[in-house]
């Protein structure tokens, strides 16, 4: 059995195509292939008669009795920074908090393999006049529970490109599994799980983020974490293993 969790997501189209062809050719030599999504089966040209979907899932890391503010946005981004334009999210948040107040916060957790990417994010953070952005860097996955509890909105800012379209985003699942209202770019895989009960679909640009933050401010007083969890419960690791 060979298992595929991702196709190549390098920006270089020639490298990406060659890498995917080699991977598909190698994988088709195995007796069985498990793959993260149906879209990747078609994209890679895998032999369907011996291929099955082993989907992405998430784990609940928060308690069911969180005492939280319903009056302000506590936004979090968790993930890699490379090729993600996270500086867009910082600029949008800076504008939003200048209009709506410093009680709203943005916590950024993750890392970049390219130092220049991190520098762009830090530059935008320095433009924040209200001191309401926390940049925490890399945090081990098993320690993320308290950050899910402290925040109420998750940002899943995935580039809207053909090579990310069929790549299920880990953090979308984890935000939802822990009851966060989720702002997510409209990739094919995000649109499969984000709905009016659990989040907001956006374009991958600064203006769309800003409008989503305004919409979140309207929604957050009525958000129920348990109801958000229910929208994605079939994707818990427990249910996936049982299936």
Short descriptors:
243 residues, 6-stranded parallel beta sheet, 10 helices
Question: Could you list the spans in which at least 5 consecutive residues all have pLDDT below 50?
Answer: none
Oligomerization category of the chains in this entry: single chain
The run of helices and strands is: EHEHEEHEHEHEHEHEHHH
Helix-strand makeup class: alpha/beta
The spatial strand order of the largest sheet comes to: 6-5-4-7-8-9
Shape by Cα distribution: globular
pLDDT average, as an integer?
Answer: 90
- Largest sheet at a glance? 6 strands, parallel
Radius of gyration: 19 Å
User: What is the count of helical runs?
Assistant: 10
Say how many strands there are: 9
**Residue share in β-strands:** 15-25%
Distance between the termini: 18 Å
Helix content: 25-40%
What is this structure, in a nutshell?
The chain is of the alpha/beta class and 243 residues long. The protein has helices at residues 13-27, 38-44, 86-100, 115-126, 145-150, 170-177, 188-193, 206-219, 225-230, 237-242; strands at residues 2-4, 33-35, 51-53, 74-80, 105-111, 133-137, 153-156, 181-185, 199-202. The protein is globular, with a radius of gyration of 19 Å.
Describe the protein's architecture and organization.
There is one protein chain. With 243 residues, the protein is of the alpha/beta class. The chain contains 10 helices and 9 strands. The chain has helices at residues 13-27, 38-44, 86-100, 115-126, 145-150, 170-177, 188-193, 206-219, 225-230, 237-242, and strands spanning 2-4, 33-35, 51-53, 74-80, 105-111, 133-137, 153-156, 181-185, 199-202. The strands form 2 sheets. The protein has a 6-stranded parallel sheet with strand order 6-5-4-7-8-9, sandwiched between helices. β5, α4 and β6 (133-137) form a beta-alpha-beta unit. The radius of gyration is 19 Å and the shape is globular. The mean pLDDT is 90.
């Amino acid at each position: 059995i060979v298992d595929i969790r991702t196709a190549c997501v390098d920006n270089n189209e020639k490298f990406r195509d060659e890498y995917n062809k080699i991977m598909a050719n190698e994988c088709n030599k195995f007796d069985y292939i498990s793959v993260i999504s149906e879209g990747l089966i078609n994209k890679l040209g895998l032999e369907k008669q011996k291929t099955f979907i082993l989907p992405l899932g998430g784990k609940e890391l928060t308690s069911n009795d969180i005492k939280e503010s319903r009056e302000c946005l506590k936004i979090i981004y968790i993930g890699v920074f490379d090729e993600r334009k996270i500086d867009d999210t910082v600029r949008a948040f800076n504008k939003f908090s200048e209009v709506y107040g410093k009680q709203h916060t943005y916590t950024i957790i993750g890392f970049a393999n390219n130092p220049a990417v991190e520098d762009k994010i830090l530059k935008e953070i320095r433009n924040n006049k209200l001191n309401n952005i926390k940049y925490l860097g890399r945090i081990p996955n098993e320690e993320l529970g308290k950050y899910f509890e402290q925040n109420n909105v998750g940002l899943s800012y995935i580039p809207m490109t053909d090579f990310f379209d069929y790549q299920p985003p880990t953090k979308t699942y984890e935000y939802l599994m822990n009851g966060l209202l989720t702002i997510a770019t409209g990739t094919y895989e995000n649109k499969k799980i984000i709905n009016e009960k659990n989040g907001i679909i956006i374009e991958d640009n600064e203006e769309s983020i800003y409008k989503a933050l305004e919409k979140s401010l309207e929604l957050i007083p009525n958000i129920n974490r348990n109801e958000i969890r229910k929208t994605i419960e079939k994707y818990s690791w427990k249910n996936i293993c049982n299936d």
